[in-house]
Structure formats: C-alpha cells, structure tokens
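Bumping with the actual sequence this time:
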Amino acid sequence: MSTIKIGGVPEHFNLPWHLTIEDESYLRRGIKLDWINYPGGTGAMCEALRNGSIDIAVILTEGIIKDIIAGNPSKIIQTYIQTPLIWGIHVGANSSFSLLKELENTVAAISRYGSGSHLMAYINAKNQGWDTASLKFDVIKNLDGAIAALTNGKADYFMWEHFTTKPLVDNGTFRHIADCPTPWPCFVIAVRNEILETKREEVRAIMNIINATTSDFKQIPSIDKTLAHRYDQKLEDIREWLAQTEWSQSLIENDVLINVQNQLRQLDIIADTLPPENLIFEL
C-alpha cells in the first residue's frame, strides 16, 4: 500500500476527490490517498508542497506558477477546472463602501502573500486602472480571519470565490460589491518532483480515477442536492455554479502558461518567466 497526501480547499470544486476516496477507488489500486483541507488556500498549499507535508495539490493556476518560478520543487500535471474562478469582491455588512471604484487605495484582506486573494487583488486593480504599486494588504489567513478583519475595520474588502462566500452575504456578514473572474482556467493539479520520480505510476492511477469521475460528474444523480447539502449552499446557487463550471482531463496548454506569466510579470509579481516545459510534467 502506497500512501500519498493530497491537499485542496474545502470547497465544492473538490467533491469529486471526496467521492472517489469514500468509495475506496484508490484503495482498490493499492493507494491510500489522504486528503488534507487547506482553508488558507493556495499560499498554504505552496508551503506544504515545499516542506513535503503534501505530495499533490489542487491549487490555483496563478499561485502555483508563481511559486514554481520562485523555486517550489513541483510541476503542474493537469488542468483541473477549465473555466475561470469567479472571485467575489466583498465588504463588511456595515461598510460605507457600496461601489467597486470606492475601494481604490483601501486595504485588501488576503489569506497570505502569494495566495490567490493576493494575486487577484492585482488583477482587479489592473482591470480598474488603479495604481497597483499602492495596493495595501492585511493578512487574515482564512475566511474566519476575513470576517474578523472586515467587521473590525482592519481591512476594507476581501476577494474570495463567489459561491463559497455567498452564505456570508445571505446571512448579512458581508455585502457583495462585484465579481472579478480569473483570465485563465482556475485550478490545476501540481505534484512534488520527488513523487513524480518515485511514484509516477501511482500518480497516473490517481489521475485516471479522478478524470473518469470529473468527466461524468454533472450526470451523477442529484449531484446538485449533494453539493448543496455538503457545502451549506442554496440549491439555486449550486445549480448556477454547476452550469458555469467545467472540469478538465487535459494537460494545461502552453499559451495559458505564457499568458499567466506575462500578466504576473506586467504586474511585477514575478521578475522572470520560464519556458512552459519547465512548469509542467507529462505523465
């Protein structure tokens, strides 16, 4: 039995992993796949890949590309979600801000530096024509930290996945100001180089199982009700999310890797770019 540790955010995107673990699909192939939730998101998973706490990460495209360039000993083996991530831009319920343009020169709550919430603050600023050099941040670690920061005024706005944050809008904790979609496929699967060298067949088996599941995921009977129940979402919100979300079973395309790097470079988030082949591994 081979044990492999995989990390991801505790969000609806990752239900296919939990279903395949629960039905013992990996155990039947001699693999004990241990899932570890990372509420702190991509920045926390990049750190976990670096220190060996996990072997595989289901991780934001821009975040892992930035960290591989910075020396993370991992490679992208596949796109996981082909469609953009819809980042909701939120303020506290009692905030005086009601329009996106009013958030210029205010403080953004981010889970950590290098996280999706950090990088997408730059993308949003660029889209709005703001001076990205004057962006200000408050590190809040996770969603609970964001609630505290926006409630006590330490931060002014917070960017997080639209539907994950929707219950906090519905219950009056946050107000939703606008959305900012990623300009690329949002989630990829990254694996530590050591695991690609020593357990390539196990990784290949894992990918065969998850890809078979995601390719038919939307056809699973009552999957909308299952998602709504497990992730405390309204059924109509889950149906809207399912309609706009597409899973991938393919290696990330070179032009996507080039586009992400070019945009990060223009924003001075990375100093150098890498050839696409230095970021990926073909199983």
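The tokens above came from a reply further down the thread. The first strand starts at residue 2 and ends at 8.
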